[in-house]
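Subject: Equilibrative nucleoside transporter 1

B.,
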Amino acid sequence: MPHIFFGITLVTNFQLAAFAAVLRSSLTSIVGVFPQEYTVPLLSGQGMAGIFAALSKIITLLMLQEKCETVFEDIPMDGKMEQKDDEQPDMILVVLKQIWPMALNICCIDVVKVSLFPAICADVRTSLAPANSLWDKLFGPVGCFLMNRCGNFVGRMLTAFILFPRKNSSFLPLLVAAQTLFIPLIIFCNVSHRSHTSPFFQHDAWFIFFNTLLGFCNGYFTTLLTSYGPKMVPLKNAKTAGSLMVFSLSIGCIFGAALSFLIRWII
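Prediction pasted inline below.
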């Protein structure tokens, strides 16, 4: 019976994720027609959804006092733009040559995020409260999921006011590469089930700070790069560029999930 329930759960989650991907892709296709600032509310709404999910987890724990495990997956989708009927888009490789820096950057952003959150972050335990205490039960929903989603939401919203660095700036890849620093920072937090390393940042505040900053950087740069990608090509190629950005996100999720197993082994 547990195997049947698990199988049904997997199939249901797959269907929900597939339909959600179609819906997000369709919405961002419409938003891509409008100026760049219209991308921010759509992606910020995705960040807000994560906050609602985290709050529901906290409310459930406070009301029912039952243990449950929750995993949130956030796969933001980029936009597509309409084209005139008499204009035919160029070949995919032609468009990829124009947007490959943005595609590579957004892929790397998702690799770092998925490799740490929620696979590793969800295993961090509080060092300030005993097992089965109220804070011990709430530390995961609050310190891991809620703070990460709040940081993600603030980062997405910030792009409505600040667009830094610009899409042609050589500083952008450096900021993206700097996010790999989150990997050792999270590894040396108070992650449970260690075999090869010892925690260095044991206090809860360290993990909450790193985790919130991880969500903030992911939300900010994902929204920034998502809005930059289709703007780097002519209007007739914007739809192809949006599809390639979505594909880059998917590739980032795959590599990030694989990297999380390596990080878990290192810990």
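The first helix runs from residue 2 to 31.

T.
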